[in-house]
Amino acid sequence: VTEHLEDRIAGMIRGEVGVEVPGPDVDLIDAGVLDSLAIVSLITEIEADLGFQLPLDDFDIDAFRSVRRIAAFVEEAGP
Amino acid sequence: MKVFATCPQSKDVERNEYATRVAEVARWSEAAGCEGILVYSDNGLVDPWLVSQRILESTERLAPLVAIQPVYMHPYTAAKMVSSLALLHQRRLWLNMLAGGFKNDLVALGDETPHDERYERTTEYTQIVLGLLRGETVSLEGRYYRVENLRLNPRLPEELFPGVLISGSSPAGLEAAREIGATPVKYPQPPGEEESHEESEFGVRVGIIARDDPGEAWRVALERFPEDRKGQVTHKLAMNVSDSHWHQQLSGREAGGEQGAERHPYWLGPFQNYQTFCPYLVGSHQRVAREIAGYMALGSTTFILDIPPSREELEHIGVVFQLARDAAAA
C-alpha cells in the first residue's frame, strides 16, 4: 500500500513540476524540486485524490521533504 | 453621510453570550461614530425589536436600524414599537423595510406573494406605519391592509420620527422607495461599474477590511474568509513555516499574487463562499476610502457595513470614512 501511495505521490509531483523524482528518499526541497507554492498545490492535489483533508494546523515542512515522508504523513493522517 | 454597522446574529453566538455580545458590538459601533446598527429579522433569529431594546439600553445615541418584514406583524404593532421605544428611551430609530426574505421563511408562514407584489405590500405597510407615526388618523382600504380611523398612542415626538431605508434595487424596489420616501439600499458593483443615481440618493451594503498596508488588509481578509482550499492551505503554511523566504512567497500569494501591484479592493469572496450579504472592500485605508468616495460621488448617502468582528476593525473603518469625507469635501 505504502509503495503504491509513494508512486502516486511521485506521479503528482511529476505532473506538478514536470520533474521525475530521483528516488523516494531524495530531499526534494534541498534539491529545488519543490518550493512552497508547489507544496500547496501538491497538498490540494493529494487531498482531492484521496478524498480527505490533511491536518495542517501544526504543519511541519520536514514532513514534505521526500516522497517517502510525504507518503508516511498522508498514511498517518488517513481515515 | 450615515454609516451603520450590523448587529451579530443570535444563530452565530453562544446563547448565554448573545446579550453581552450585542451590547458590546453596539458600544463599539457608537464609539466608531456610526449612526446606527442594522438588526436582522428572519425565522431563525431572535426578535429584532427586543434586540433593539438591548442596543438602546447599552448605548447613548446609537440608533437601531430595525429590519421589518410585513409578514411578522401588523403595521399598527410596528408603529407602536417605534413610539414605545421612543418613549422608553427618548431615542430615534431607523427602519429597514423589507419586501423579500428567505423564501422558505415566507412559505413556512403561508406567504407566497410574488416579488413585485411584495413591494406593493411593503409600500402599503410603510404608509400606514409612517402615517401613524406622524400622528395622523389613518384610514386605508388597501389591497393588503384595511384600517379605519386608526390612531397611535403613545404619540411620537416629531424629532424622533424614524429614518427609513428599503432593501432592494429592482425597479419594483425603487418604485416603492419613491412612494414611501425611503432610501433604497443595494449591493453595489465596483464604483467604476455602478450606474449614476443622480436623480435620488441611495445606500450601499458593503463590508470593509482596511489597514495601513494593503498586504496586511488582505492577510486579515483571507484569514477571515479563506477563498478556497488552496487559499486555506496557503494560509496555514504561511503561518507555520519559519523560513522567511517561504513565508514571503506564501504571504505574497495570499495577498492576491500580484507582486508589486495592489489588488483591486472590490472582493466578492465572502459573498460567494460565506453567506455574508455583501461585497467587501479590502485594502489600505487610502485605497478603500477612494472607493467609498466613489460611491458618494454617485449619490450614495448611506453605508451599511457587515457585522464587525472586533472593535479594532471598526476603528480602521472609522479611519476610512474620515478619509472619504475629507476627499469628498476637498
Briefly say what this structure is.
The complex is a heterodimer of chains A (79) and B (330). Chain A is an all-alpha fold and 79 residues long.
Provide structural commentary.
The complex is a heterodimer of chains A (79) and B (330). In chain A, helix 1 crosses helix 2 and helix 1 packs across helix 3. By secondary structure, chain A is mostly helical. In chain A, 53% of the residues lie in helices and 0% in strands. Chain A has three helices and no strands. Chain B is α/β, with parallel strands linked by helices and 330 residues long. Helices cover 44% and strands 18% of the residues of chain B. Chain B is built from twelve helices and 13 strands. In chain B, the strands form three sheets. Chain B has an eight-stranded parallel beta barrel with strand order 1-2-3-4-7-8-9-13, surrounded by four helices. In chain B, strands 10-12-11 form a three-stranded mixed β-sheet, sandwiched between helices. In chain B, 45% of the residues are buried. Classes of the chains: A mainly alpha (79), B alpha/beta (330). At the A-B interface, helix 2 of A face helix 8 and helix 9 of B.
